Amino acid sequence: PASPPPPVGHQISAAAFLGDAMRLMAYVQAGGAVAAIWRGPRMDPDDQLAKLRSVFIAHQANEIPRLLISVAATLRAKLDDGSWRAPEACVGWVAPGTLADPGRHEALSIWEACNKIMHAREVTPAPQTDNGGLQFIGALLTMTGERGEQQWCAELNLQAFCIAVANIDFYARGGKPCQY
User: Fold this and answer.
1) How confident is the model at residue 177 (pLDDT cuts 50, 70, 90)?
2) 138 within 8 A of 127, measured Cβ to Cβ
3) What value does the CA radius of gyration of the chain take, rounded to a whole number of Å?
4) CB–CB of 67/122 below 8 Å?
5) Which residues pair with 150 in a beta bridge?
């Protein structure tokens, strides 16, 4: 029997990669649930729950960009070397200029989303507000940057991005993905 082709490019554990993607999705999904905990009157005069919520929001604000960059850079490396294959998925939109322009936007593929994540000059999460008026980081990010002289603006749906990542074909070249 023919042996599988030798590994290509960076040897990255699919399990570790998916772990980062899962943590990214968990942070995105947890925002609303964490905000819901802080409804109603407080019995604690020091309001420890509010302090804990502030710590979570700060941690969420730090972890989402770190995980997003890790997932995007890893995925681009493996897509570019041909050993992984991304699904055909729209994970947001991109348009020329620095402002959202629904009339001129194009669908953002997962490959292009990775590119925009890595080259963005400014990334702004779109905060969401629950029924009680508490804000949390939602699933949408707006990114701006430039390619050469051309400025661009993109909106990334983190939930759609994570779902697309979960559907990566890790066997694009046959054999098994790297398992450490």
Assistant:
1) very low
2) yes
3) 19
4) no
5) 147
Q: Which of 99, 100, 75 is nearest to 89 (CA)?
A: 75
Cβ distance 178 to 91 under 8 Å? no
CB-based contacts of 147, cutoff 8 Å, min separation 6: 119
The answer to whether 110 and 86 are in contact (CB under 8 A) is yes
Share of the chain above pLDDT 70, in %: 81
From residue 174, give the alpha-carbon distance in Å to each of 46, 85, 128.
58, 11, 42
Structure tokens at 119: 């080259």
What's the pLDDT score for residue 94?
A: 92
- The dihedral region occupied by 148, where left means phi > 0, alpha psi between -120 and 50, and beta the remainder, is left
Q: Where are the alpha helices (DSSP H) in the chain?
A: 14-37, 48-80, 110-119, 158-166
Task: Compute φ and ψ for 174, nearest 5 degrees.
Answer: 85, 175
Residue 154: strand, helix, or coil = strand
Identity at 141, one-letter amino acid code: L
Sole residue written with tokens 């066997």: 171
The rounded distance, in Å, linking the Cα atoms of 31 and 138 is 7
Tell me what pLDDT residue 40 has. 56
